[in-house]
Structure formats: structure tokens, C-alpha cells
Amino acid sequence: MDHPIKRDHARFKKIVKGKIRANLRRFVSQGEMPIPKGDGTFKIPMPSIETPRFRFGSEEQGGVGQGDGEPGDPVDGEPGEGEPGEGEVGEGEGKKSLEVDVSLDELASILGEELELPNIEPKGKKTMESVTERYTSIGSTGPDSLRHFKRTYREALKRQVSVGTYDPENPIIIPVRRDFRYRSANSKVEYENSAVVIYMMDVSGSMGDEQKEIVRTESFWINLWLKSQYKDIEVRYIIHDATAKEVDEKTFFSTRESGGTLISSAFKVCQDIIEKDYNPEEWNIYPFHFSDGDNWSADDTKMCLDLLDNVLLPASNMFCYGQVESRYGSGQFYKDLSEKYGESSDEIILSKIKDKDAIMDSIKDFLGKGN
């Protein structure tokens, strides 16, 4: 039978999970990000959760149900309570939001339930061999760092008792070499899928801070879901205007240029990364490109389509294009892709992201097929 504390803890976690799910769209649309703690869990800000309880007052106090009352009198007011902004300054603490720790799998599960995301099924990719060492047995040889002191002591005690040298009045146990015991590893070969996510973003003058914030928020939740589906995942970042280059995460989200836009420059860097580091037979590859839809010329768009047909689409599990609405962007690239591949192609997934409120729907567009 479960201990009452365990039942209460499980019930509390269920309530917390429900609160997070109920507020998930607000968290995402307002750009609030779970804070990674470094131990595989995330800190989530939440509204306070108060347990309903009875509040007893003075028997001589008037009020609703106890004598005369006037319309507008507080039902459960306490002495000293009033309207917000009234009263004297105090020194007590105000109400703070509750922060709870949630594991990556729990947070991904909430996202998956909210968006009804299917589990990803890698297609046409080899699984990579992974060797796991687990110290579950005891051996008679090994390095001193793995010596099992309790087992060593037990062997020395057994030896001294068996040869009659053990003195209960003076119980000194001195292990010799043959008494030493060591933790021994059993190797277990497992097969796991590995994935790489390659983010490409237009950082030309037409992409402002709001558009970059949308990309940052959406990429966080996409990464979260993919990390729950793959044991090993890598993330690469490419920025481009008229030229493209690979950068780190911080640079990816903070750079702003003022030049024109050649989308093919990003696709070429993506091609180089895949050909150099990620064999499509061994890796599940997810390129994501975010732009406001402007491209320098029709000739460059034709080059982009050629790169997609001949290189990027054959190598990828899916190629995703997210068009972030901007007052300066024409949105033409989305039109070109939809004319070539269709709105609901299995080869390339297109999504229009009008504002922050559209981020969740865009994530469902990208991940809803389980590719």
C-alpha cells in the first residue's frame, strides 16, 4: 500500500502538470522560457496553487450569514484587507509566483499532449551502436579506484576465520592481495538513433527583433520535443543575408545585419555541414529555415529549389520552412515553395508564423506528422 505522502506527492505533480498544460500557450506566446537547471530538469514559473480551506472568524463579527450586511461587503475579508492600492506601506512579503522543477520528458509530454504530437519514427536511417557499461558484478581483478571495500573486507574475514587466525577479542582484519574484490562492468550494446537539427535564419534588415524572438522561442520548443525522441541530438546554426556562415547559438539569436538576402547561401552552408559531418545513412537530419520570405532574385530562388531537390530533401527526414511575418517582407519565397511542392507535402513542411500567438500552431505544423 502506498504511503499517504507518496499519494499526495503524485496528486500534487498531477495538479502541477495540469496547470502547466493549461498555461502552456500563454508561456509560449509571451516568450516565457523554462530555465534549464543543468541536471536535466527545467524550472517553470507558475501561478500560486492554493489549497481550499475554511477560514473562521470572530463569532461577534457581523457579515454575510451573521447579521446585517451591506452590498459590496467582502465575504471572506480579514481585518486590514482592502482594495488594491489602499492602506499604509508594509514590510511583509507579497505573493510570488511558484516555481516547480519539471524533467525534460515531463515537459515534452505536456507539449505532445497539448499539440497531439505523434512520436517520431525515423525512416530509412541506420541506428548507431552504443555501448553502455554497467557495474553490476564483482571481479577479483581491477584498478584500485573500483575496489569494493565491503566485499574485500568480507573475503578477508572469511579467510581468517577458515584458517583460525581471527581473534574475536582483537578483531583485526588485514586483507591480502587475493582478498581484493572490484566492481566489474557488464557491457551492453544498444542501438539508438541520432539526430541533428540545422537552423537557418535570415538576419537581413527586414528581420527585426520581434521576428528573431519568435524564432528563438519556437526553436527552443522544437529542440525540446526532438530531445525527448532521440537520445543523441546535435544542433547547428546558420545565419545569412546575402552571404551565410555557421555561428554559435548566442550569435544566432543576437545578430542583425542590414544587407540583402540570398537564401541559397544558407542552403549551400547547410549542404557543406551535412556532407562533412552527417552521413544521411546514420543520422536523422532536420533542417529548419526561418525568413520573412524575401529573396534577392528569381534566379536565386531557382538555385534554392535545385539544392532542395538534389541535396537537402534526399538527405533530410523533413525540411521545414517557417515564414515569420514582417512589415518589410514580401512572403514570396513561401509562395514559390508552395507552388513547387504544395501546401501539405511530405517532402517539405511550410508554416506561416504571423505573430507569437501562432508559434504553437507552427510547431504542430512542423512536428505533427511524426517524421
Report what the structure shows:
There is one protein chain. This protein is of the alpha/beta class. The protein has three domains: 8-48 and 98-116, no CATH class; 128-189, no CATH class; 194-367, von Willebrand factor, type A domain (Rossmann fold, 3-Layer(aba) Sandwich), CATH 3.40.50.410. The protein has helices at residues 4-29, 104-115, 149-163, 209-229, 249-254, 263-277, 298-315, 332-341, 359-367; strands at residues 35-36, 41-46, 98-103, 128-139, 182-192, 194-202, 232-240, 244-247, 283-291, 319-324, 348-353. The strands form three sheets. It has a six-stranded mixed sheet, with helices on both faces. A three-stranded antiparallel sheet has the order 1-2-3. Strands 4-5 form a two-stranded antiparallel sheet. Helix 4 packs across helix 9. The protein is flat. The two termini are 42 Å apart. The mean pLDDT is 79.
